[in-house]
Amino acid sequence: MRTAQRAVAIALFILVASTAYADSRVYTIEDAYDAALKSNEAIMISGENAIQAENRLDQAWTFLYPRLTANGSYTQFDDVLPPGGGSFIFQPRDQFNASLVLTQPLYTGGRTLAALRAARALR
Known about the structure:
Blueprint: H1 2-23, H2 29-39, H3 41-62, E1 67-76, E2 94-103, H4 111-122
Antiparallel strand pairs: 1-2
Helix pairs in contact: 3-4
């Protein structure tokens, strides 16, 4: 009987040990390196600086593109006669104004190209 109890205890120990080993995860050097990169504050700050540098470069490019401005208005006046008759000059019943303006500076003193070069250098 004692031998049977020992055999069951050994079998149970082997079963628990093999299950515990199967559940544990094996980490490679690459996994540890990736985890360190994701949690390192200096690397996170550098990544944010890179994103901001790209945004500054995009902003510098916008000064080289032409600008298009659109304006519009619509006005309608009532055509009710003044009380008591009399002479009255009517305004137009409706009025519509619209404009599109395209602006492209011909010369900026080199500041736009200098800003673009500086943004590229910071990137």
